[in-house]
Every structure is written in structure tokens, then in C-alpha cells.
Amino acid sequence: MTGNIGLLLGLAALILMALRGVNILIAALLASLIVGLSNGLAVDRILLEHFAFGPLGAFSFAGQFFVLFLTGAIFGKMMATSGAATAIAQSVIDRLGARRTLLVTVLVCAALTYGGVVVFVVIFTIYPLGIALMRESDLPKRLFCGAAALGAGTFTMTALPGTPSIQNVIAANALGTDLFASILPGLAAALVMALGGWLYLEDQWRRARLRGEGYQANPQDAAMEKMAPEVRHAPRGGVAMIPLGVVLGSIIVPRALVAAGLVGPQTPLIGGLVAFANTQPIIWPSVALLLGSLCCVALFASLRMKAMEALSGGANDSIMPLLNTAAVIGFGGVVTQTAGFGAFAEGVIALQLPPMISAAVSVSVVSGIVGSASGGLQIFLQTFAEHYLALGMDPADLHRVAAIASGGLDSLPHSGAVIAMLTIMGLRHAEAYRDIFVVTVLVPIVATLVAIGVAALW
Known about the structure:
The structure is a single chain. This protein has 24 helices and no strands. It has helices at 2-19, 24-38, 43-50, 58-82, 84-96, 101-114, 119-137, 141-153, 155-158, 166-175, 183-211, 219-225, 237-240, 242-259, 271-278, 283-299, 301-304, 307-335, 339-350, 355-370, 373-390, 395-406, 416-425, 429-457. Helix 5 (84-96) packs parallel to helix 7 (119-137) and helix 14 crosses helix 15 (271-278).
């Protein structure tokens, strides 16, 4: 009984500390100690084994995915420093105009994140430009925030096949699949998320206009608007897209060559490289992101004088996202050692539900508890994957369903990503969270059910 109470207190402490803005490294460590000590675990085993270096240890995860986080952050920094990310955003704005501010925001964020640019670089790119759009179109800022969350943190992260996102890579690495696992269910879910979320936001904008609700500036806007790079120094939109194409092409082409029967393991010169690319879910996306960074340096003259500065800045930018994710997973490593979690696992396994639905429920709950899709997915796959594979689930379907389901309840109010986005935009939960909840929680849950249905019929 004491252990179960301690487990609940630890979870409550993690959620409350996250909501109050306590650094997630401190929050996860304190919550781990509450859970571990109340369940009779020795302090040294909590700190040095379960939290740090166990199968779900923070540094076990950090060591495994360090290169991916590093190359992703460097590529994002190169795109931002060169002005390429801004040029892509400006190109979409010029084509669609301020009347389509919501669609512009979703499309720009989706294009950049699907191409490998990390989420926070995308937000810092679109937000300064978005201020002028919101002002011109009189769009309530809460809806702009919802559109950015939809484009940057939903379908490109979990559903679209081929994305080098951490969720897609975690699933491929754990299950021995590739980044294109279960293509049709992924595309169906992505369509539901993108279209459903956008239509909801457009409907809310229509309702807002009827109420006379419009854009209201806050002190954060003036500071962020000054950070918008001058577009005259940015490359043209078409040229700016090339590094994104290099990243995605590097991931897609090896699989396409094998699928078309054009290349096999014995093919001279490229057979071994293609086989390596298709069997390395962590290293090859990292190589693709590195090639994208080199492409930025080669294409953008404005970046060459700042290449080393961008390289160092990207490396620095990779540290906190990696450690924050690792800390959440380390907390999960302690939680999984408790009797309460064992009972939860047994309860999940005992549920009389179809395997894909059971898997979706369990990964959603775990992601909701830790407030992180990547953290919840890693914990789920380490804990439950063997059970669902033993039930006969196709690894590719488990990959895609688990990845999509991880991106629902992860966005509850204590989510680090949600808190960070609201902080960047100077908004409170009371002002903007309802719209974020619909597009990042409710719609993805519906999309998960659609993916399960398509996978069952496919």
C-alpha cells in the first residue's frame, strides 16, 4: 500500500512541478526518489542504476540517441542561421496570403518538421513572422498557437512514414522495423490529424470573428518580432527547400531502390551502402541530417562565414532536449521497478481488448503520465513490446500504432512541450490550452483509431 501511495505521489509531484515550471531534470529526479524510496529501493540503485543506466535509464537513452539529437539540432540551426527556414515560411505566406494564416502556419511547420528541423527551431521561425500575419488578419493568438502545435507536433512527428522524428526512430530501433513501417495506416492517420485539426481551427476562427474576438498583442510579441531575420538576406524559397529534400531523399531513396528491385546486397558499389541505410534506424537518419547540413553550407553563401558558429550553436541546442527527454525516461526506469507498475502492466495484459487497441491504450496512458510522447513510447516498447509481438501483432503495425498513440495524451497540461510553447508565445493555459488540447490530444486519438482500423483491414 505504501509503495502504491508513493507511486501516485511521485507522479503527482512530477505533474505539479512541470506545471509550475520546475526544470524537468530536477522534477524527474525528485519524483524518482519519491517513487523509489517509498517502494523500498536503495538510494544507490535508484540514482545509479534504475534512473541512470538501467534498460530505461536516462543515460542509456541519451547515449543511444545522442547522435540523432545532435545532427537534428545542427541541421535546424543551419536552416535557421542561413535564413532558409524563414524563406520557406515567407514563400508559403506569399502564395497563400494572410487570409490563410492558419493554413500557412500548419503547412510551414509541417514542412520543416517533416524535413528534419527540430520543433523549437520551427516555432522560433514561424512565430516572429506569424505576428505580422496575426495582426493583418486579426487572428486570435490562441488559434495561431494551436496551428503551430498541429503542424509541428502531431502528424509529422508520429504518423507520416519516413520522418526522421525521434518517435519514428525509437519505434524502428526497438522493433527492428524501418522508418516507413505500416505506410497506409500512417498516411490515413496523418490525413485525419492534419485535416481534422485544421478544420477545427478554421471553425474556431469563424466563431471568434462572430464574437468580435481578434488579435491582441502581448509584451512577448514585440521582443520576438525583432528576432525575425530580414528576408532580403534569405535564399529563395525553392532553393531553401533543397536541404529538406536532401534529408528526406537520403531516407527514401535506399528503400525505394530495394522496393523496386533495382539494388540488392550484392549490387556493386552501392549494395552495401543501401543495405546499411535500410537497417540502421538511428545512424542513417543522422547521416541524412548531416548531409542536409552540408547542403546548407554548400548552397547558402550567407551561412559559410557563420558555419562554425551555427555548428556550435546547434550542438549546444541539442543538449537540453536530449537531457529533458532522457530524464523523463529515467523516471520511467524507476517507476517500472515498482509493484504498482507491475500491477498496471498485468492489468493491461489482462484487458479483453484486441491487441492493437490494447497497445494504443497502454502507450497513451504511459505517455500521458510522463508528459512526453518519446518518453512514453520508449517506456512502452521496453516494457510491453514483447507481449504484443507474442500475440501475433505485425511489428510494422505495432510501430505505427504505438508511435501515433504516443502523440495523444502526451500533450496534457503538464507536457514540457506544451508549457514551452505557451511560454515562448507569452500565453497562459487558460487562454490557449483548449485549442491545443483539441488538435494535439482529441484529434490524434481519433487518428489512432483510424490507423488501427486501416491496419486491421490492410
